[in-house]
Amino acid sequence: MARRRQIYEGKAKVLFEGPEPGTVVCYFKDDATAFNAKKKGTIEGKGVLNNRISEYLMIKLAEIGVPTHFVRRLNMREQLLKEVEIIPVEVVVRNVVAGSLAQRLGMAEGTALPRSIIEYFYKNDELNDPMITEEHITAFNWAHPHEMDEIVQLTLRVNDFLCGLFLGIGIRLIDFKLEFGRLYENDQVRVVLADEISPDNCRLWDIETNEKLDKDRFRRDLGNVPEAYVEVARRLKVIRDNEIEALKNRPRLVE
Ligand code: UDP
Could you give the domains of the chain? Predict the structure, then answer.
């Protein structure tokens, strides 16, 4: 079989041309980067786990009416997506102080915020994803004001829903990053949720112990990195115990 044409290779994912026009195949790698790729590594089995976790969350969000680019999971490491034009803005939602917010404002990590806060960052590796405001986004036409309204509405719904979903499995959703894209369909264009939702782009703390169950274990060299991803997948029930064993025995499992 001819190899599919690669469209793009990112830090954690590879995109290939899909089987039909308007679709792409996303392959989840085990590669992990942090601090704008200054720190590089591999998290065994991460691709398989993020593929499952993101599939589950995208399906749940679609069920409550959040439009997404997700079509279906194809295999252990790949999912079929609708092709979208990515809006070059990272939308970060924060419920609890952590990471760059703690550093920027000198606040203690773990402080609950009086309300959820949305921040925007310009997707540009060369510039280190600088923080921006809605003013920059609309002035430079990265997104239209009506698209921003849609993005804010969707983001708040996603946050409310995910906070509840994670609370149900004993996890506090500290913060996370979303990306949105424009979907062109039948002469119409609409904003949909894109990218992935996984422990790579969420901070997830155990409700009882505050143990970190996300990429901060890799960023901060906390150890038990793959175990954190497995734990999230296990609590979400997107992986069975025998599959966890198989992952341990064949960590570089691909298909
Ligand atoms: N995040 C992300 N990609 C980025 C930057 C941040 O997925 O390029 C996520 C990160 O995992 C966290 C949230 O966005 O859940 C807020 O990250 P923060 O601004 O604190 O930056 P960091 O500490 O990752 O530098």
Answer: 6-84+225-248 (3.30.200.20), 85-206 (3.30.470.20)
Whose tokens are 């060299």? That residue is 221
Tokens of 233: 């997948």
Per residue in 145-197, pLDDT tens?
999 999 999 999 999 999 999 999 999 999 999 999 999 999 999 999 999 99
Residue 245: DSSP 8-state = H
**Which atom belonging to ligand 1 lies closest to the Cα atom of 101?**
20
Q: Which residues does 11 contact at the CB level (< 8 Å), separation at least 6?
A: 31, 32, 33, 37
Residue minimizing CA distance to atom 24 of ligand 1: 99
Show the ligand 1 pocket: residues with CB < 6 angstroms. 90, 92, 98-101, 129, 175-177, 201-203, 215
**Taking 90 as the threshold, does the pLDDT of residue 33 lie above it?**
yes
Smallest CA-to-CA distance from 131 within 71, 177, 171, 164 is with 177
Ligand 1 pocket: which of 175, 205, 220 to mutate (most atoms <8 Å of CB)? 175
30 and 44 Cβ atoms separated by less than 8 Å: yes
Query: What's the gap in Å between 64 CA and the centre of ligand 1?
Result: 25
The rounded mean pLDDT for the chain is: 96
192-249 pLDDT per residue, tens: 999 999 999 999 999 999 999 999 999 999 999 999 999 999 999 999 989 888 887 7
Atom 10, ligand 1: residue with shortest CA distance? 201
Ligand 1 centroid, distance to 187 Cα (angstroms): 35
Asked if residue 199 lies in contact with residue 173, where contact means CB atoms within 8 angstroms, the answer is no
